[in-house]
Design a protein that fits this description.
This protein is an alpha+beta fold and about 80 residues long. The protein is built from two helices and four strands.
């Protein structure tokens, strides 16, 4: 499976607890689409959240995010890492 980094904008002021809850919501249903969300990071001041996942497609990632109420604004493949 491929890795993807997705980005959510407009999340100014998000708290650590809100980020944890959103990530947990994704984890609770990720298997429905064959996705595994590995980590999530946030910059509350800039209002940006980043999520790293392993998934069969970017559409599968988006479907999970849509079902949990936080659609990604961008989804980027991550073909190389060290």
């Amino acid at each position: 499976m491929a890795k993807y980094m997705d980005v959510h904008h407009g999340m100014e002021g998000i708290t650590a607890e809100q980020l944890r809850q959103a990530h947990q919501a994704d984890l609770a249903i990720e298997a429905d689409e064959g996705v595994h969300f590995e980590a999530a990071w946030a910059d509350p001041e800039a209002g940006i959240i980043y999520c790293l996942s392993e998934a069969p497609s970017p559409d599968a990632v988006q479907r999970i995010h849509e079902r949990t109420g936080h659609r990604a604004d961008e989804i980027h493949p991550v073909p190389l890492s060290v």
